[in-house]
Amino acid sequence: MFGTPHQSFESDAVQRRISRRESTKVSVAEPAPAPTPLEKRLCEVFDVFDNTRSGEIDVRDLGTIIRALGCVITEAELQETQVEVEDVENNCVPLQKFVEYMHKAITERKFKPAEPEDLLKAFQLLDPENRGYIMADDLEKALTEIGEPFTKDEIADMMAVACDSATKKVYYEHYINLLIVKIPKNLNVYSIVEQMEIDLLESMPKKRRLESLLLEAEERASKLQM
């Protein structure tokens, strides 16, 4: 009923053997999740500026790399971003910090360029006579007095491209065409985010998909009311 002493001894031996195996098991870390399409794109552009293949870029290149992604970032926003991602001791930006911060920012549609139609409407407000151009002095005044003021460097950079040096006029439709970044859809970070969201939505069960769509509609409605 209780088993023989020999059986008890064998049972104890087996248990000790199992215990030894458990104690010597090598813990296997779970594989890291596969990078998202956006993370891949961020790494690709980062690598272009990482000349030493150290996983770091010079902090002075931060604005250039962000704009190379097709983002529109002001100097004030760039300074805020630098505070978040810079390794101050080494004056560099590590890849991981850059990818984490920019992934979140782009997913939230930060630094997204204005649509050409919106730019045209903004310029037309400064051209009530519909002449098709704005005098450089008038545009510069508007840029420093309306909304978030441009810095002198930002205005100088803009005028270098937009202003006709002979007439001091800014033909804004021509300027808008110059601004439109011709980035293929599969490389445009904002198009990548939109496709990721579509793929996520399609992978959801129908009920959750409907709930997600309703939530998104509510968020858009609340933004319109603000």
From TrEMBL:
Name the domain of life.
Eukaryota
Annotated Gene Ontology MF terms? calcium ion binding
Show the Pfam families listed in the entry. EF-hand_7
Name the residue ranges with Polar residues bias: 1-10
Annotated spans, Disordered:
1-33
The protein's matches in SUPFAM superfamilies, at most eight in alphabetical order, are given as:
EF-hand
Q: Which residues form the EF-hand domain?
A: 37-72, 114-149
Can you name this protein? EF-hand domain-containing protein
User: What is the species listed in this Swiss-Prot or TrEMBL entry?
Assistant: Odynerus spinipes
